[in-house]
Amino acid sequence: MISMLVTGGCGFIGSNFVHYVLEHEPDIHVINLDALTYAGNLANLADVANHPRYRFVHGDITDRDIVRTAMQGVHSVIHFAAESHVDRSILDSGPFIRTNVLGTQVLLDAARAAGVERFVHVSTDEVYGSLGPSGYFTEETPLAPNSPYAASKAASDLLVRSYVHTFHFPALITRCSNNYGPYQFPEKLIPLFISNLLRNEPVPVYGDGQNVRDWIHVRDHCAGILTVWKRGRVGEIYNLGGRSERTNLQLTHALLEALGKPKSLIRYVPDRPGHDRRYAIDCSKSERELGWHPAIAFEDGLRQTIDWYKSHADWIAAIRTGEYLQYYQRQYGSLVHDAS
Length: 340
Ligand code: NAD
Ligand code: TYD
Description:
The chain contains 13 helices and 12 strands. It is α/β, with parallel strands linked by helices. β5 (118-124), α5 (148-167) and β6 (171-176) form a beta-alpha-beta unit. The radius of gyration is 19 Å and the shape is globular. The structure holds nicotinamide-adenine-dinucleotide and thymidine-5'-diphosphate (TYD). Nicotinamide-adenine-dinucleotide (NAD) binds next to α1, α4, β5 and β7.
């Protein structure tokens, strides 16, 4: 039995990953270290809370003592824990530097001290900056992060790189495009728009709606991370992407159609400052070297995701209170009143 420490396992991708590992890997015991920030939700893992190969540790990755204790006997670390929302990083970058940069450093030091054999650092294509209408991000694309979120992730990637170089630390980095699927916090485009539309509330499209994202189903991302963990080469970076580029407006129209809602629910709101125009991932290295491929067609994945949110009204309702409503008011202002 291998002991795997997953950080941020109560968030969107982390909780999908924990489910994925418990389903597919009978020889892995998962320890989930999560601070339960606004984005961390125990309900995401309620169905496996008593699983014999799962243990939850409530703690912050910047807390050296907690991390040292959690790291004891651990063979591998999969590091998801982060502040992850670009708009929140524009409102206040402080927590992003603290968790994404300092937290990663604390984890790296503790993992080194504990003799961890493999450390997968889960990063993002946003570290590469923004593309024009053509071309793709490869693993060689220079880092050019444009948001405080992306800058904090790039900083953590460089720290990981330095530990590989300086200490021969056995780390690997994945950089993935935009994820969608179950358990995604309804501040990101797809779950925000679905949950608003289910209540017949308007959806806020930034700028002209022509920004492009490359969407990947979270299960494909989880499979990619596990493949990198199993077969990737230490010190390497592996891009993961969905080969499903859509403009935000195309995606919005697809959601409106799937939910049978009118186009009049679209609200064009002021653009996000520094809004990256286009992301598109070249994931051919991961396909060639590791045999991984994104397998879920976007239309199928989106339909399943809509069905999941439709059947999890209680999960959404439990989130759309207190802190969430304050954030929504601050980010979208008058749209709240439009909706009432
Ligand atoms: P999320 O915001 O849904 O979840 C983050 C989780 O980390 C939460 O459970 C939260 O409680 C936990 N956390 C935050 N700060 C912590 C701290 N200081 N100590 C311990 N736990 C803490 O994020 P997500 O969308 O699941 O993203 C997970 C990772 O994947 C992040 O590193 C992100 O940069 C990366 N990523 C995300 C996407 C995407 O589309 N969402 C794409 C590529 C990469
Ligand atoms: P988001 O889900 O925040 O992911 P990221 O910024 O990390 O790519 O946003 C996806 C795209 O949707 C991005 O171009 C910004 C846009 N967007 C809106 O138009 N309106 C919104 O309310 C949000 C949250 C995002």
